[in-house]
Amino acid sequence: MSVENKTKITVDIYGQQYTIMGAESSSHIRLVASMVDDKMREISSKNPQLDTSKLAVLTAVNAVHDYLKLKDEMDQLQLELKNVKD
């Protein structure tokens, strides 16, 4: 995909400005940034001693954990659907 077809937007995540480029709409990019910001603030409120780097890593670990759970659920549902069709 060429640079012309990408969305470029500046977002605020945990008090820092980031310029993000992607194929998705600006509203999608804003939503992702907002969800990351929310998760960082949630983790920070429970662990106020964490520095920003550790907070970012824990946020990433949480996001990947959630992704893997959803992927497992989707795989299971696809298997069940395949079994129903057969």
UniProtKB/TrEMBL annotation:
PANTHER family: CELL DIVISION PROTEIN ZAPA (PTHR34981:SF1). Activator of cell division through the inhibition of FtsZ GTPase activity, therefore promoting FtsZ assembly into bundles of protofilaments necessary for the formation of the division Z ring. It is recruited early at mid-cell but it is not essential for cell division. This is Cell division protein ZapA. Homodimer. Interacts with FtsZ. It is found in: Cytoplasm. Belongs to the ZapA family. Type 2 subfamily. Its main location: cytoplasm. It comes from Peribacillus glennii. Keywords: Cell cycle, Cell division, Coiled coil, Cytoplasm, Septation. One of its GO terms (cellular component) is plasma membrane. The keyword Electron transport does not apply. GO terms for biological process: division septum assembly; FtsZ-dependent cytokinesis; septin ring assembly. InterPro entries: Bac_CellDiv_Activator, Cell_div_ZapA-like, Cell_div_ZapA-like_sf, Cell_div_ZapA_firmicutes.
